[in-house]
Amino acid sequence: MKVDLLLKNAGVIDETGSFFKGKNLIINKGIIVSVSTELSKEYEPADQLDASHLIITPGLVNLHTHSPMTLFRGIAEDVSIDDWFNKEIWPYEKNMTEEHAYVGALAAIYEMLDHGVTAFADHYMFPESIIKAVLESGIRCDLAPTLFGLSDSFQADVAHSVELIKQYQHTHEVISLRFGPHSPYTCSFEQIKQVVDLAKNLGVGIHLHVSETWEQVEDSLKRHGKTPFQVIAEAGCFQVPTIVAHGLWVTPEDRR
């Protein structure tokens, strides 16, 4: 059987975390079809690599990123989250262009690939720029274009997300899309429910920030009488595949 690649005599860490020496891996069309100690004559690899100095592991997955923001790394690490967002980062971020976003995403992607990350879930603006970087690099990406409920362009941004989902979902092997309402403190209950209903209709998921600080939980309890987790649950978020970013302040009721 003709196959694409043989990785010879590699160290292998499998999905359980167990380590094995001297394994030969047969790869065809991006799929590992055989892992064995003995070299099999069944396969005829078009190429082979001596991997005796390498350890092969399952790819890592980064479940929440803002890849273009790699450009802002190191700015004001010693301030409160509100000051970081509003006073330090926003003056830079509001001047970001599509080209900046592309360069930032590409830098983040190659850093991830260099550290064994083969897939990431991104939540950011400039989705076309991120898609361009993903397709150029070959990494896998689950992308949620950010939707800010307080923005005058919210409905237009939702419509744009729908267009991107229809364009890229199931048509590109390395790209998946979902809706990205920013959070229950920047999007209203009605806005989150609208997006959830669209996600159900299109067969995709949600990615949003929830309970990142205790202050967010307290504010939600004052405004709604519910925690952020309870708000998004009532909006139907957990009826579709949902990535919760941060989720640092979780109550016992939230766990249920």
Q: Give me the number of helical elements.
A: 8
Helix content: 25-40%
Write down the secondary-structure element order: EEEEEEHHEHEHEEHEHHEH
- How many runs of DSSP E, i.e. beta strands? 12
Largest sheet: 5 strands, mixed
Rg, Å, rounded: 22 Å
| Broad structural category | alpha/beta
Beta percentage is 25-35%
Mean pLDDT: 94
Shape: elongated
Task: Outline the structure in words.
This protein has 256 residues and is an alpha/beta fold. It contains eight helices and twelve strands. The strands form three sheets. Strands 1, 2, 3, 4 and 5 form a five-stranded mixed sheet that branches. Strands 6, 7, 8, 9 and 10 form a five-stranded parallel sheet that branches. A hairpin with a 2-residue loop joins strand 2 and strand 3 (31-36). Helix 2 (98-114) runs parallel beside helix 3. The longest helix has 17 residues, at 98-114. The protein is elongated. The termini are far apart.
